[in-house]
């Protein structure tokens, strides 16, 4: 049974996700020369969409590509800004990835770790669809906001 959201246009998927709207803004803010001015929001987010077959072809030997690390950083920065917009508290990302592609990404608010994820093969960072990207980002924002609601005295410290 096909999912109605899966058949939605890319513009509708982006509009429905506060995280995707934030990520588009973060990526566009990095475009100091206007190279992406004529591109659609879906085209700007296209590097984040890597289907399973394409991920299998990406070698995990060697240092992660600097552009990939930049995309990961923007992903978590957008999540942090989306959390801040939702809760009013600054959610700072901390990302530490070693040269083999292993590492951790965390969001903290005050003294509280509101989100933490360990990455094993950052070389293959990506999502099957634009909708999956949005759902993953929105889930991070939801989890972080729930953690802040649960421990507000630590998050406000």
UniProtKB/TrEMBL annotation:
InterPro entries: NifX-assoc_nitrogen_fix. It comes from the Bacteria. NCBIfam families: NifX-associated nitrogen fixation protein (TIGR02935). This is Probable nitrogen fixation protein. It comes from Aromatoleum tolulyticum.
């Amino acid at each position: 049974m096909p999912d109605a959201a899966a058949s939605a246009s890319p513009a509708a998927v982006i509009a429905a996700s506060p995280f995707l709207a934030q990520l588009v803004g973060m990526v566009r803010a990095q475009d100091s020369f206007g190279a992406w001015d004529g591109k659609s929001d879906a085209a700007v987010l296209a590097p984040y969409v890597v289907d399973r077959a394409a991920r299998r072809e990406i070698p995990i030997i060697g240092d992660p590509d600097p552009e990939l690390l930049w995309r990961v950083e923007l992903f978590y920065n957008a999540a942090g800004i989306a959390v801040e917009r939702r809760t009013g508290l600054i959610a700072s990302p901390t990302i530490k990835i070693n040269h083999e592609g292993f590492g951790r990404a965390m969001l903290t608010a005050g003294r509280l770790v509101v989100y933490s994820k360990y990455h094993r093969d950052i070389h293959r960072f990506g999502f099957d669809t634009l909708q999956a990207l949005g759902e993953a980002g929105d889930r991070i924002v939801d989890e972080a906001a729930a953690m802040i609601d649960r421990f507000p005295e630590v998050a406000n410290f």
